[in-house]
Amino acid sequence: MYDPIRMEIDEETRDAIRQALSDMESKVDLLIFTSRECRYCDEMLKIVNILVEESPSKNDTKLLSVKVYKLEESPDVFRKYSINRTPTLVLLDGNIRYLGVPSGEELKGLVETIIRISQKDSGLERETIEKIKEIDNPVKIEVIVTPQCPYCPYAALISNMFAFAAKENGKEDFITYIVEAYENPDIADKYNVMTVPAIVINGVLAFVGVPYEEEFIERIIEIAVHRKTVETERVGETEPL
Prior knowledge:
Elements (H helix, E strand, L loop, with lengths): L10 H11 L6 E7 L6 H14 L2 E2 L2 E2 L1 E7 L4 H6 L7 E4 L4 E4 L6 H14 L6 H8 L5 E7 L6 H17 L5 E7 L4 H6 L7 E4 L2 E5 L4 H24 L5
Parallel strand pairs: 1-4, 6-8, 7-8
Antiparallel strand pairs: 1-5, 2-3, 5-6, 7-9, 9-10
Helix pairs in contact: 4-6
């Protein structure tokens, strides 16, 4: 029976991965969280191990490294990163998280994310980065995706690069979650997602489809900054005497 999560990586695909990752310039660490009862952890590990194998080396050391944590063996690490689903893939020490396997089309977005982090270049406009620097409130971006969706890698990539730029500027509470919908149907259902990619900002369904960079940052500011300010003002209000 066809399973969209399980991906056959042939030699042609390996060659494409190897060629793409050859653009890496510095080390990137991947953290993988698994558990005994996890249905697709083997698929996550298969894909990640292939990425590591095909990544370039510098001074006889692979530029892409992976650490695997099992719930039954490392519950303290799960608590540290607030991991409650498996498999989960983490980059940037937690600012970018994949809930579910980055299979199919999603692999393209992950590979490009790794390359840009390695090159320390988000690819975002300077004006966008300056606006990210000014955001002091927590930002949680959830990108709902499926392996077959041709546009999902682009939504994932731009969201990941926003989190990367935030991390580079000391914003530890600006986090992007790439949510694989088949493995996490409860999250997709929570936001009544019928079409992917769908992008949720701080619990608000903000986009269906891939947003332009300038409208993405403005929507983040609107939801994460202005709405938070309004809520804070309301909390501080008192009834007139």
